[in-house]
Amino acid sequence: MQLIALGLNHTTAPVEIREKISFATDTLSNALNALTQCELAKEAVIVSTCNRTEIYCSVEQDNVLALYDWLARYHTLTRDKIQHYLYTHTDHEAVRHLLRVACGLDSMILGEPQILGQIKTAYSTARTAGTIGKLLGKLFEYSFSVAKQVRTDTAIGSSPVSVAFAAVRLAQQIFGDLQGNTALLIGAGETIELAARHLHEKGLGRMIVANRTVERARLVAKEFSGYAITLEEIPKHLEEADVVITSTASPTPILTKAMVEKAVKARKHRPIFMVDIAVPRDIEAEVAELEDVYLYSVDDLNQVIQENMRSREQAALKAEEIIDTEVSHFMGWMNSLDAISTICAIRDHSQETRNSLVHKAKRMLDSGKPAYEVIDYLAHTLTNSLMHTPCAQLRQAGYDGRAEVVLAARQLFQLKD
Questions:
Q1: Considering only Cβ atoms within 10 Å of each terminal Cβ, which end of the chain, N or C, has fewer?
Q2: DSSP notation for 121-151
Q3: 38, 50, 344, 391: which is the annotated catalytic residue?
Q4: Distance in angstroms (rounded) separating the CA atoms of residues 302 and 161
Q5: Is the Cα torsion angle 312, 313, 317, 319 positive or negative in sign?
Q6: CA pair distance 244, 127, nearest whole angstrom
Q7: Do 210 and 229 meet the contact criterion of CB atoms below 8 Å apart?
Q8: DSSP 8-state assignment for residue 283
Q9: pLDDT grade, residue 163 (50/70/90)?
């Protein structure tokens, strides 16, 4: 049995290619069944995210090109349209690849944890679809365990490397506990939504979301128990905000120095932490001149992110060492599968021989033979029966000059030289 991992990701394919061969969540089960029912794979798991599409499968023989063709056909493409963007890993390299992906070492943002949840979802979908067997079941469960070990034993995920998370972390450094604080989030895009999520997770007291389109602001605010306002309403609420995070596409500043200065006075000079993630900037640069205002630009945050990224890169080196060890352990287990059928055959043969001789021994006892004679017969005959064929084969191997067979037998029975 061979293990194969094939696919593409953000480093090998642009988004216009990735989106063409992605799998929608509601089509994954059908795709998995189609892949296994056409007998290209015995087992299969498909991981499909915005940054990667990967197929993990166990196969009887190397048929990578056939798998490429299946992937292309499924998405109404031809192999030559996608082959340039695809990568393939087999056996121990496939194991290493999955472990690196699960640990966030192959992600666009080094060490990000979201991919592990996505892999677990893909695994659950494959289990429900019935395309998980012994090999992939063991592999994916193993990847979850290794990812947990890497998170525990390294600092791979301890430092923020997203702009939104870095902003929230800085707010915590200034205010400490955020439970008694109010945040004003200006904009309603992905970055603001992510900042809202992080603030909510950190126990923020109140949240106000301002956006040009108030309906969009309401969607974000509702999810995190906040309330929505329009951009025009910001001056009335700015003095309430201890934390201001802004990220809009406005061509001109939304917060002026005069507006912020008025809010600071109304706050009786209680500090305001402000993060301007927008380009062009949403907050006039002169706001930084005001006392009791801590203003950070996206460039300031990028410096924090780069420092944290270097910390993650150091942690990644240790993570790679852990993965190297765990790949060896898994491959040892996987290689042992090849011996299982032989072990079972030896046990079955030994059991048949034992049963036959025990039956004869019982008849000898029933006929009145002394027990010690029966025991001696049973031990002697069982030993000869079990050892006859191996000894004959070893004699023949010695005659033929196949010293490796003799050596293997000595290792098998742990015989001293």
A1: C
A2: HHHHHHHHHT---HHHHHHHHHHHHHHHHHH
A3: 50
A4: 9
A5: positive
A6: 45
A7: yes
A8: B
A9: confident
Q: How far is CA 188 from CA 104, 177, 201, 295, 372, in A?
A: 27, 25, 18, 20, 90
Which of 293, 297, 304, 294 has its CA nearest to residue 280?
297
Percent of the chain whose pLDDT exceeds 70: 100
**What is the dihedral angle through the alpha carbons of 80, 83, 85, 86, rounded to the nearest 10 degrees?**
160
Residue type at position 153:
D
pTM of the model: 0.65
Q: Are strands 182-186 and 272-276 parallel, antiparallel or unpaired?
A: unpaired
> Distance (Å, rounded) from C-alpha 296 to C-alpha 276?
6
Q: For 79-124, how does the pLDDT look when each residue is reduced to its tens digit (9 = 90+)?
A: 999 999 999 999 999 999 999 999 999 987 788 888 999 999 999 9
> CA geometry: angle at 201 spanning 196 and 206, to 5°?
60
Which amino acid type is present at position 295? Answer: L
- Helix (H) or strand (E) holding 404, with range, is helix 403-412
Which backbone phi and psi does 371 adopt, to 5 degrees?
A: -60, -40
Average pLDDT for 156-164: 76
- Starting at the edge strand that comes first in sequence, how are the strands of the sheet with 52-59 ordered? 43-48, 52-59, 2-9, 87-90
Measured CA to CA, the distance from residue 161 to residue 154 in angstroms comes to 16
Q: What are phi and psi of 55, to 5 degrees?
A: -115, 125
Query: Rounded to whole angstroms, what are the CA distances from 152 to 160, 326, 329?
Result: 16, 15, 19
Tokens coding 282: 């949403």
Q: CB under 8 Å to 349, separation ≥6 — which residues? A: none
User: Counting beta carbons within 10 angstroms of the beta carbon of residue 177, is it exposed (0 to 12), middle (13 to 18) or buried (19 or more)?
Assistant: exposed
SS3 228: strand
Whether residue 50 lies in the annotated active site: yes
d(CA 68, CA 61): 15
Per the document, the length of the chain is: 417
Instruction: With cut-offs at 50, 70 and 90, classify the pLDDT of residue 244.
Output: very high
Residues with Cβ < 8 Å from 106, sequence gap 6 or more?
A: 9, 97, 100
Q: Residue 268 — φ and ψ, nearest 5°? A: 60, 40
Chain centroid offset of residue 343 CA: 34
Please report which helix (H) or strand (E) contains residue 219, including its range: helix 214-223
> Side-chain half-sphere of 46: how many Cα atoms within 13 Å?
26
